[in-house]
Structure formats: C-alpha cells, structure tokens
C-alpha cells in the first residue's frame, strides 16, 4: 500500500503521526508492508513552498493509493489573499483529485456516553453517516469575489452532481438501516428544489431504501432531539460541513470523527476537525479522528476490513478502559496525551497482545 501523508498545520502533524504509528503496527501485525511519503500542505506549505498546494505534493498524492491529511489552517493566515490561505490547499486538493463524496460516520459508543453534549438516554445508540457533497456547491461556485464593499459567492448544483451523490447515499443506506434523510433548504433555494427533485427521482431506483427530505433548520433541531432517528444524512457541501460538526457534538468532541473523500483519482482521508492552533504542540490532541480515517481507508481503498476492525477494536478497548484525551474526559481517570493514547491503541492491536 502506497500512502501519501500530508500532515498540514496545527495539530495535523501530531495526529497523522499517531495514525501512521497505528497503521504501521496494524499492518505489521498481519505481515503487510506500507510505503509512505510525507509532503507539506496548507500554511506549512505556504511557508516552505510559497503555495498551500505545491506541485510535488499533488504529484505524490496522484501516485499514491490513498492520501491521509492531518489538518489545515493557521491564525497567521487570517489576512492572506484567498489563494494563499491554507484552506485553499485542501479545497484545491479535493478538486484536483476529483473527490466529490465525503463520508463522515458518527457513532456514539456506550463507553463515551458521558462525554456527549446530550443526555445518555437521548444519544445512546446514535449511529449515522453524513454523506456530504464535496465537489461543488457554495464552496466552488463562480462568480465569487470581494470588492471591499460587497462580497459574493454563488451556489449552483446541476442534476449530475446531485444524482451521483444521491446514488451513493442510497447504496450506502442499503448496506445500513435503509434510510436516507436528504437535507436542504427547498422552501427558499432553487438549488435545493433541484436537489430535492433529483434525489426523489433517484430514490425510485432504490425501493429498499426509505427517503425523507427535511429542511436544514428542522434537521439541525432533530439532530439534537432525536439523533438515533438518522441513518444516512445526504446533503450539500456547506450544509454537510456544518451538520457534521454539530453531529460531532453528539459524540462529545470534533476530535473523534474521521472522514473519507471519494470519487476521484485518489481517495483522500481526513479527520473532520481543524488544525486546533490553541492546543497545537501541547501533545494533547485527540488522534481518534485520524485513526477513524485510517480505519475508513483500510475498509474502503485497500479492502482490508479485518485490519480496520483491529484498529477500531483497539480504539474502543482504550475508551472502555477509560483512556481518553482531555477533549473527551469526563470525571473518572485523568486524561492522557496524544502519545499515550496512541501507545495504548498500539498495545491493544490484535486483541491486546
Ligand atoms: C472540513 C473543514 C474544511 C471544509 C475547511 C478546513 C476548508 O471544515 O473538512 O469540514 O470546510 O470542508
Ligand atoms: Mg468543517
């Protein structure tokens, strides 16, 4: 397996480091080799190469089976021109690789019930998958600009963009609990009315899956009131960005979620969290998001579900043993740092050998 690692900014290097340690150990455990290159992205790349997505980085990604990205974003970039913002590196990478589907699983394990923002009886059993359209929408629409007095962005979707993400959501729902909730703002936006029509058309090809369409404001409330009602959430780029952070609150920390960005020439795996500059370098970052991304990679790109199971089981065993970083700490044992959490996961790989 050929992996390109793009640590990026802030806590990115700490969590990708942890993920690589666990991945190497999990593969080694089963006698599988890993071929790895590390390249800069984001603000780190602006510093070293003068651009957030240098050509050699993109080239390494294109030659890899999968890309693992840490995080991008830096407080020092606040006044940088748009093309030198760290986020432009990530958005440019998603676009250059052609990744148009972003999968963000959100599961609340019993061991984390006390860390959730919600009462345990409300959140227990939450197991949903956000299927976020990643290649279009408000993030990429033209025209866009800012003349100092007025700023503008454009929201467009065409039928093909909606159909392909809807088709994927229905297919994934068929392998889960058979329910898609498509989230839009069809009472106000033309793009949402098209979205809703195309999703409803596509649903006819998937009679085994139930479809609900829901307005995004109501969905934001339902996610907090009845999180267990959701199975697959299908939504646009910006709404998916927002709702997946909200869903992370169900687990208790943004640090816990991983994601897979698919559909392009190379699959891209990224934790859902950002660069968390306030804790960068302190050794306190939660590597669970990066580890969840590695597990998704093992399941999706390289078809090693047994190794993915090893990783997931090792993480769950740590949580069960009360080993947590301080974003998830709640009473009980004192929190551990990134390093100790990672070591504890490695120790538990392959059934705690
Ligand atoms: C995410 C992040 C990115 C996004 C940023 C860093 C550009 O928030 O992956 O959720 O908005 O897609
Ligand atoms: Mg986000």
Write the layout of secondary structure elements.
Layout: E1 2-8, H1 12-29, E2 35-38, H2 43-49, H3 55-63, E3 66-71, H4 86-97, E4 101-107, H5 120-123, E5 127-133, E6 145-146, E7 151-152, H6 159-174, E8 179-184, H7 190-203, E9 210-215, H8 216-225, E10 232-235, H9 237-251, E11 258-262, E12 267-271, H10 288-300, H11 305-320, H12 338-352
Helix pairs in contact: 1-10, 1-11, 1-12, 6-7, 8-9, 10-11, 11-12
This protein binds 3-isopropylmalic acid (IPM) and magnesium ion.
3-isopropylmalic acid (IPM) binds at residues 72-73, 87, 90-91, 241, 272, 274.
Overview of the molecule:
With 353 residues, the chain is an alpha/beta fold. It folds into 2 domains: 1-107 and 254-353, Isopropylmalate Dehydrogenase (3-Layer(aba) Sandwich), CATH 3.40.718.10; 117-251, Isopropylmalate Dehydrogenase (3-Layer(aba) Sandwich), CATH 3.40.718.10. It has 12 helices and 12 strands. The strands form 2 sheets. Strands 2-1-3-12-11-4-5-10-8-9 form a 10-stranded mixed sheet, sandwiched between helices. Strands 6-7 form a two-stranded antiparallel ribbon. The relative contact order is 0.17. Bound molecules: 3-isopropylmalic acid (IPM) and magnesium ion. The site of 3-isopropylmalic acid (IPM) has 8 residues, from α4. The site of magnesium ion (MG) has 2 residues, from α9.
């Amino acid at each position: 397996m050929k992996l390109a690692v793009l640590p990026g900014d802030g806590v990115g290097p700490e969590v990708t480091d942890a993920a690589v340690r666990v991945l190497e150990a999990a593969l080694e455990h089963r006698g599988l080799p890993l071929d790895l290159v590390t390249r800069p992205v984001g603000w780190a790349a602006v510093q070293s190469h003068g651009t957030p997505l240098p050509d050699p980085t993109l080239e390494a990604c294109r030659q890899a089976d999968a890309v693992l990205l840490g995080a991008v974003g830096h407080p020092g970039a606040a006044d940088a021109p748009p093309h030198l913002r760290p986020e432009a590196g990530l958005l440019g990478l998603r676009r250059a690789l052609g990744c148009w589907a972003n999968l963000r699983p959100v599961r609340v394990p019993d061991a984390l019930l006390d860390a959730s923002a919600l009462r345990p009886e409300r959140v227990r059993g939450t197991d949903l998958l956000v299927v976020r359209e990643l290649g279009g929408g408000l993030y990429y629409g033209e025209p866009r600009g800012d003349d100092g007095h007025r700023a503008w962005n454009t929201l467009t979707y065409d039928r093909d963009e909606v159909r392909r993400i809807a088709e994927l959501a229905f297919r994934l729902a068929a392998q889960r609990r058979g329910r898609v909730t498509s989230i839009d703002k069809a009472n106000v936006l033309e793009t949402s009315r098209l979205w809703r029509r195309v999703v409803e058309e596509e649903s006819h090809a998937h009679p085994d899956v139930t479809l609900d369409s829901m307005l995004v404001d109501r969905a934001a409330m339902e996610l907090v009131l009845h999180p267990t009602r959701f199975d697959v959430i299908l939504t646009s780029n910006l709404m998916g960005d927002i709702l997946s952070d909200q869903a992370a609150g169900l687990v208790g920390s943004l640090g816990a979620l991983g994601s897979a960005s698919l559909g392009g020439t190379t699959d891209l795996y990224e934790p859902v969290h950002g660069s968390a500059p306030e804790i960068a370098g302190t050794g306190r970052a939660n590597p669970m998001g990066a580890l969840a991304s590695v597990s998704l990679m093992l399941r999706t790109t390289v078809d090693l579900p047994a190794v993915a199971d090893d990783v997931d089981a090792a993480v769950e065993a740590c949580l069960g043993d009360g080993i947590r970083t301080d974003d998830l700490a709640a009473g009980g044992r004192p929190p551990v740092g990134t390093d100790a959490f990672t070591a504890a996961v490695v120790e538990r790989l392959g059934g705690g050998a």
